[in-house]
Amino acid sequence: QAEKKLIQAENNHRLSELRVTFESERKEKDNEVLRKDNELKKMTILRKDAFIWIFIIAFAFTAVFSIMIYTRFESKKRANQRLEKLNNKIVKQNKEFEKLNKDLENANREKDKIFSIITHELRNPLYWFQNLTEMLSLRYTKMPPEKVQKTLGALDESAKNAFHLMDNLLHWSRSRLNRITPVI
After folding, report:
1. What b/e readout covers 112-143, taking b as 16+ CB neighbours within 10 angstroms?
2. What is the Cβ-side half-sphere exposure of residue 80, based on CA atoms within 13 angstroms?
3. Spatial CB neighbours of 125, under 8 Å, sequence gap ≥ 6
């Protein structure tokens, strides 16, 4: 019986050693599995982190690119507004120039008409002045003194009319140029 107890104790001891060995091998394998699982989880976490960083970098590039496009759009918009203002100003100035050109053309037509009237008005007294001086220079010796006196009076009257006409034209041109002011 003692031998049996000894064998049984030895068997129990071996059995417990086998159990401990089995348990330690099983725990070792479980630890190995857990280590591999941890490595897989770490790899998954690293992949997720890498994906998150790639997403953050892509988002940052997209944001920067969007901001650049927006600022470029805004600067073009402001430039277009400035160009539109300048264009409106140019259109307004062109209209003013067209009006000034029309006024200038009207003034030139008026000037031409006035010169035509002036030459017509001056021609008549000067024509009489020329005729009288020509007649006097060619025939004054053959003319009776009364006729010479009458012709000289007509010549004087014609010179005075031409002078008054020229004086009136001079006053008129000065008033048109605002060089004289009327006294009220």
Report:
1. eeeeeeeeeeeeebbebbeebeebbeeeeeee
2. 6
3. 158, 161, 162, 165
CA atoms of 173 and 135, how far apart (whole Å): 34
The Cα–Cα gap between 136 and 151 comes to 8
Please give the Cα distance from 82 to 98 (Å, whole number). 24
What are the pLDDT tens digits along the chain (184 aa)? 777 888 888 888 888 888 888 888 889 999 999 999 999 999 999 999 999 999 999 999 999 999 999 999 999 999 999 999 999 999 999 999 999 999 999 988 988 888 888 787 778 777 877 887 888 788 778 888 888 888 888 888 888 888 888 888 888 777 877 755 556 5
Burial class (CB in 10 A: 0-12, 13-18, 19+), 158: buried
SS3 for 102? helix
